[in-house]
From TrEMBL:
GO molecular function: methyltransferase activity
SMART domains listed in its UniProt record: PKS_MT
Family to which this protein belongs: Belongs to the CFA/CMAS family.
Cited Gene3D superfamilies: Vaccinia Virus protein VP39 (3.40.50.150)
Top-level lineage group: Bacteria
Name of the protein this chain belongs to: Cyclopropane-fatty-acyl-phospholipid synthase
GO biological process: lipid biosynthetic process; methylation
Polyketide synthase-like methyltransferase domain span: 161-419
UniProt key word Transport: no
Keywords for the protein's UniProt record, in alphabetical order: Lipid metabolism, Methyltransferase, S-adenosyl-L-methionine, Transferase
Length: 444
């Protein structure tokens, strides 16, 4: 069928209402669409079978992870051009990146002509999902048992794989790209500066106790102990993270000041702490448990203790009842992860008793960080595939590239919220001048 690509492009054009902005190559070698553009490659007609059985985003995600659909050329350009022409009704469903943009291509309900897609692909039974898709989840969302299982799906994929993507810092959250570091700033510079920024906002001093919730591979706890003299407790639900974090702590000679636990934040009972950091962890908490999260951290802080909550935020929708977790992200990246608007997060922290003193948006910083991670992954692609699987590497490349564009285009944000547990008499212990609350004696 030498006209396969042309027929597919016609279907997409019909669904979009505008010309397809990319070139398309089908499994038979046929091509259609504008030249000199990134190429969407449909390598196998099985991709269309997936889309017929699961129209929309999930079918497309499975085809991408299985390698049946690919992009040749600049992935960011391809994502951006498709996103520019997506009808507004798709944006309102909470979809992001390629999964939102290309879902128009395969949503049979949009075309209302399933027979035409069937004529191109041919009949077939539904292909099994790729192995990288999260297994069926049991029990209520965000219970201790279920949270441990879904966190393991994302984080226990191999410390060596994460080292390729994240670099030596092993920090899996937005960096802080400062002007002082100059145009040659590295990912390591940005992550070091982010950790230092958080320590300064918390005004950490020698001898204080810090709780780092969702400590990952221990970078925040180690930085705070080494450079600010604190005694840090880091908690994570990932056994693999904890193993490497403890090794890193020992190698740095910090075992007397840093403790790493495999523990849920709800199980921490040895407060009070002088400060709490939560960096890129609250996205896993879920709307149904966020008040419990805020209440728990408030309880664990002494009066006058500070919380630094570093969290991704989505834009509020006109009708919040329409929000659904992104299918691709939920099935392949962050199972049960949920994003909330910044205003809701601040309100729930205040309801727990916190006084919110400062909010800093780092949206552009996360876009730079994600692009650096994608570059690391692409540079070490063959090794990443050997360490995990081709499908897993494809999941990470797509979600990070698509997320970078979402931050660049202001569809996602990330914010550091600095809050304090005030004393019963209302004393916060914080200087009244905004720039002064981070002034402290540096320990190292």
């Amino acid at each position: 069928m030498s006209d396969t690509a042309a027929r597919l492009v016609a279907l997409v054009r019909e669904g979009l209402g505008v010309p397809f902005p990319l070139r398309l190559r089908a499994w038979d070698g046929s091509e259609a669409g504008p030249p000199q553009q990134p190429v969407v490659v449909v390598r196998d007609r099985r991709a269309l079978h997936r889309l017929m059985w699961r129209p929309g985003e999930l079918g497309l995600a499975r085809a991408w992870v299985a390698g049946e659909i690919d992009v040749e050329g600049d992935l960011y350009q391809a994502l951006g051009r498709m996103s520019d022409v997506v009808p507004e009704r798709y944006r309102a469903r909470g979809r992001t990146g390629l999964m939102r943009a290309l879902s128009v291509l395969v949503d049979v309900r949009t075309f209302n002509r399933a027979a035409r897609l069937l004529a191109v692909a041919g009949p077939a039974l539904p292909p099994p999902p790729p192995a990288e898709e999260v297994a069926r989840r049991h029990g209520a969302r965000h219970t201790l048992r279920r949270d441990r299982a879904v966190v393991s799906h994302h984080y226990d994929v191999g410390n060596d794989f994460y080292a390729l993507v994240l670099g030596p810092s092993m920090v899996y959250s937005c960096g802080y790209w400062t002007a002082q570091d100059g145009p040659g700033a590295t990912l390591e510079d940005a992550q070091r500066d982010k950790l230092e920024l958080i320590c300064r906002k918390l005004a950490l001093r020698p001898g204080q106790r810090l709780l780092d919730v969702g400590c990952g591979w221990g970078a925040m706890a180690m930085h705070a102990a080494e450079h600010h003299g604190v005694h840090a407790v880091g908690v994570t639900l990932s056994a693999e993270q904890a193993t490497l974090a403890r090794e890193r702590v020992a190698a740095a000679g910090l075992t007397d000041r840093v403790e790493i636990r495999v523990q849920d934040y709800r199980e921490v009972t040895d407060g009070p702490f002088d400060a709490v950091s939560s960096i890129g962890m609250a996205e896993h908490v879920g709307a149904c448990r966020y008040q419990v999260y805020a209440n728990t951290l408030h309880r664990l802080l002494r009066p006058g203790g500070r919380l630094l909550n570093h969290q991704i935020a989505r834009r509020p929708l006109p009708d919040e009842q329409t929000y659904r977790t992104n299918t691709f992200i939920d099935r392949y990246v962050f199972p049960d992860g949920e994003l909330a608007p910044l205003g809701r997060t601040v309100s729930l922290l205040e309801r727990a008793g916190f006084e919110v003193r400062d909010v800093e948006a780092l949206r552009e910083h996360y876009a730079l960080t994600l692009r650096a991670w994608v570059a690391n992954l692409e540079r070490h692609w063959a090794q990443a595939v050997r360490l995990t699987s081709p499908g897993r590497a494809r999941v990470w490349r797509l979600y990070m590239a698509a997320s970078a564009l979402s931050f660049e285009r202001n569809r996602l944000g990330v914010n550091q919220v600095l809050a304090v547990r005030t004393a019963p008499d209302g004393v916060s212990g914080m200087p009244p001048v905004r720039g002064a609350w981070a002034v402290h004696d540096h320990a190292g």
